[in-house]
Amino acid sequence: MTDDDRTEYGEKNEHPHEDQQESRSAQDSGPGQECGERPQPRPERAPRTLAVPDLSLVVLIGATGSGKSTFAARHFRPTEVLSSDFCRGLVSDDENDQSASGDAFDVLHFIAGKRLAAGRLTVVDATNVQSEARTQLVRLAREHDVLPVAIVLDMPEQVCAARNAARADRAGLPRRVIQRHQRELRRSLRHLEREGFRKVHVLRGPEEVAAAEVVTERRFNDLRHLTGPFDIIGDIHGCRSELETLLGMLGYSLVRDALGRPVDAAHPEGRTAVFVGDLVDRGPDSPGVLRLVMGMVGAGHALCVPGNHENKLGRYLKGRKVQHTHGLAETIEQLDKEDAAFRTEVGEFIRGLVSHYVLDGGDLVVCHAGLPEKYHGRTSGRVRSFALYGDTTGETDEFGLPVRYPWAEDYRGRAAVVYGHTPTPRANWLNNTLCLDTGCVFGGAMTALRWPERELVDVPAERVWYEPTKPLLTEAPGGADGRPLDLKDVTGRRIVETRYMGRLAVKEENAAAALEVMSRFAIDPRLLPYLPPTMAPCATSSEEGYLEHPAEAFAGYRADGVREVVCEEKHMGSRAVALVCRDETVAGERFGVPKGVSGALYTRTGRPFFDDPEATESLLRRVRDCAEEAGLWDELETDWLLLDAELMPWSLKATGLLRKQYAAVGAASGAAFPGVLGALDAAAARGVEVAPLLGRQRDRAADAAAFTEAYRRYCWRVGATAADAGAPQEPGGGAGLGELDGVRLAPFQILAVRGRSLAGLAHTEQLALLDRLIAAEGAVAARDGGTAGGATDRPGLLATTRRILVDTGDETSVAAGVAWWQELTADGGEGMVVKPVQALIRQADGRLVQPGVKCRGREYLRIIYGPEYTRPENLRRLRVRHLGHKRSLALREYALGLEALDRMADGEPLWRVHEAVFAVLALESEPVDPRL
């Protein structure tokens, strides 16, 4: 087996900076200090600085009484230190019970493993003078891909004995125990690095220990403090000319030497280039690529991680035996034309490369062949091997090349992983990973990713520089949609990271309830990128006869520091989300749906509004044509729109609710009260004193009539039976859903377009765009002959959302807002929604302000709270409303909805978008008063 083969399958890492983290011994053994001899007196030394990587397993080594616990308490946090004595006490109630040592170390190793898995610095406080004990700890560090560090406290025997004698629990410790520890320690000192410790610090005598200072150092791969922006460039393979062109497209200015060769490139806006490796081999000018990249890295204008081809070239330059295959022979021939100084510089550059970088606060990982989340920020030969080569199944394909395990299909990490190594025809996001190797040297393209914009930029190859061993894949791994949805993505207790409210929890029982709805009733998840949040009502009003009143809504926003709000008419319909694609081709290419589908129309629980797909397509066709007429496709630079809207009439979706609940109450009152009132009137005519009872029953009958009138306002016939789209109908009236006569859609927000979330756009701008969409319907209807939305003498499909702006700090403006609401509700309107004009508003303490509160009309609330809710005694009871949970739920669902939109706009895979969408539905099953 050649050296090249051994490295492919995970040979011990030789990288001097990353795996060893500047590994060196600090034993300071001088003359007269051979193994087993007592240290000789020496002059006082300067204070020692002990460098410890911020993620490592620190093993304290020293005889009993050497001061390890005191040293640990002085230099490390209490939570970082695991003491064998303490663990012995945990399992036996006696820290000196040596018979419990086996169980104690089992506990210690278990806790240490959990801490290392969580990425926590861990210190083991035990004697650790025996090689067997240290071997277990080194193995534990390797299992978690962290560096083991040894700190040795080599104290004279007399010092250890004196310290033990001063402790009541150690006063009787035999001197031979200390002597045995000392002998074992001296035998170990020369072999600690060979055992696997990457750093060894030896402190001799109390003076050195007292003068020592422990300093944690950042791992070489930890560049989270660098936030970019970055331009990440895929595999180059000696294609210098294409690299120069790509850098120019990205906005970099090249710097050339006296011979005209590019030796640096800088961006005027301070962007940083990041190279994913494989700079060399196969292409026409590997030295030219190296000269440019090394110059950019040296000047601080770029970062670079090694590829497997650099790794192999580095071993060749060190004199190792490697096979001159896969383009290395061409690189060697090209380098032979360079001077020795350049070749030496190349070797040093390659040796200094770090396997991967964690950037931008941990949101971005760059490596050559990809990296699972468990390896991010870790340091070991295994991590470096995976970053260089990926993971193989042990098989070879028909071309004799190793079959690689598709790690990206299982990736679920928060950080985006950008890599190269495996050439594909085009770059596609797959589960928050992106392969940038688009086969430039094979005649494909050289591709870069702008971060954080997530914009791809590429230049075509000038020619085929090297014939590939096998054809490029016909499709990038996983395709445009990434891996299929997985049940594990949504079941159990879930934590969803959001950009606006941090980590949000979903309870297991709520996830189970959402799964029932999503799996049985929801539309195709590819067409379900968003679910709207619930909306909290305004604070309870103290106005006579009112449960909700605009004054409380305005006062609430004024208290949150929001001056300008928009009051939008609340349509009495059903919340609807419309995904409208410009044509079927866009729907198929972007969302992966079959032919004949151009979008979706669904409820706030993800169910389709219409059972008839043609009814959905007719509605989408009208909206699509109006967007074309209004010029929105071109203005918004998109080929699809995601709209938040209300679909009317209410009876279109709520027929069952109306028939079984509201209509039943109206019918019962209509049957009961005439007889009751007739009997009481007859009794009064006979002179019976029933006036108080008669008055109460007349009031009740009036309330019942008002209740019936309230819900009937929101019901009318649709389809072929809609003789008059505005005529009320009794619940259960036939509705031909194959036709849209009488159906009204009132869009009030454009949520997202291709590549952008518009949730942060001011509501006034949103409504202005939608006004144009609605205004265009007249021209579209005239062109279509009045189809798909009603004849030209009846209302069209699209309905305007009326609104008024209110300054919450101006009493006159507030009064005008109240008057507008009163007029709206007096005419039978449901009420209004009050929203800050500017979206995504935060309070002074950083918390999100409610995106909107609903203020419902007095008569509409009769439907919700019952016919007699306005009676004083009932209002007093109903005013005790606990709104805190509802408001919290509204904000959490809002943050999850924003996260889903952002993930979709960023081009993240379906499972990532669906994770946030599913969480919204899960939160809907939290217990809350349904009347709020």
TrEMBL record:
Coiled coil: none annotated. InterPro entries: Ap4A_hydrolase, Calcineurin-like_PHP, Metallo-depent_PP-like, MPP_PrpE-like, P-loop_NTPase, PNKP_bac, PNKP_ligase_dom. One of its GO terms (cellular component) is cytoplasm. This is Putative phosphatase. Residues 229-425 form the Calcineurin-like phosphoesterase domain. SUPFAM superfamilies: DNA ligase/mRNA capping enzyme, catalytic domain (SSF56091), Metallo-dependent phosphatases (SSF56300), P-loop containing nucleoside triphosphate hydrolases (SSF52540). Residues 513-720, 739-927 form the Polynucleotide kinase-phosphatase ligase domain. Residues 7-22, 35-47 have a biased composition (Basic and acidic residues).
